[in-house]
Amino acid sequence: MVIESCRLCPRECGGYRDNKTGKGFCGATALMEVARIAPHYGEEPCISGKRGSGAIFFSHCTMRCLFCQNYEISHGGFGMEISAEQLAEKFKELEKSGVHNINLVNGTHYIPQIRESLMLYKPNIPVIFNCGGYEKAESLKLLSGIVDVYLPDFKYADDEMATKYSGVKNYCETAIKAIDEMLAQTGGLRFDESGMILGGTIIRHLVLPFGTKNSIAVLNIIKEHFGGKAFVSLMAQYTPCGKALSHKRLNRKITKREYQKVLDALFDSELDGYAQELEASGTEFIPSFDLTGVL
Ligand code: SF4
């Protein structure tokens, strides 16, 4: 595959991508790269369940979050090439292993290639697209009918903060449009008889240190814009990693007081959703990126 001038994500950098070259901002070539393919237990209970979520971690990223917990693969680009056919085989292997779903983690810059794999083999378990909320609705349309669950972040209401922390412009409006498209594709949440997700969209929000104002504004936007269709997963697991370790506002976990303020806002908003325990913060949620399941 050759992408002469890539405009797949909202960055629209126009980078040239072929099987060997990745000249765009994200650094991804036209060939997918992955860093880990294995059951993952750190997602929401309706996704991880008892047998784990079949997570496929893609290398490279269209964002540059200073606090990224998967730094070595997103910014560093660590990973190994995998063809659409090989990825389709990995879907089969994961499905056979008994995981509850296929969880495509951070694959925004590979949407056409992922589509190709899913056209070769559509698993009989739900397919989840797990992403940063920084997607183009037009690109997401390529996944319509083949992705069952979207798991987007809604990181920022404050665009200045988005630029400072994640190197993106116009994040808030972009995320609203992307989530509109996701909700239109999936409809409301559906679960099986044991409470595992079958379809729908869950909007994730990670509370950041000194970030309560932004978090409350995000919840307000979700309520105002998506209303009763929204289901929120509030996350407390922030742990300083990568560049955040030396950043004066990002180098600590969130406090009990900060989290409580956001929890109160979630409660007052009457939005449906989950809230993670504060004790969940820590590095145990970060898997090893050592090509497990890839080789
Ligand atoms: S996916 Fe990568 S190459 Fe394509 S527009 Fe986005 S940053 Fe640029």
Identify the CATH homologous superfamily. Aldolase class I
The succession of helices and strands, N to C, reads EEEHEHEHEHEHEHHEEEHEHE
Low-confidence stretches: none
The ligands bound in this entry are: iron/sulfur cluster
CATH topology: TIM Barrel
Task: Specify Rg, calculated over alpha carbons.
Answer: 18 Å
Helix fraction? 25-40%
Number of domains: 1
Strand content: 15-25%
Spatial ordering of strands, largest sheet: 5-3-4-6-7-8-10-9
Structural write-up:
It is a single chain. The chain is of the alpha/beta class. The protein has one domain (about 35-285): TIM Barrel. The protein is about 30% helix and about 20% strand. The protein contains nine helices and 13 strands. The strands form three sheets. An eight-stranded mixed beta sheet has the order 5-3-4-6-7-8-10-9. A three-stranded parallel beta sheet has the order 11-12-13, with no helix packed on it. The longest helix is centred in the middle third of the chain and has 16 residues, at about 170-185. The structure holds iron/sulfur cluster.
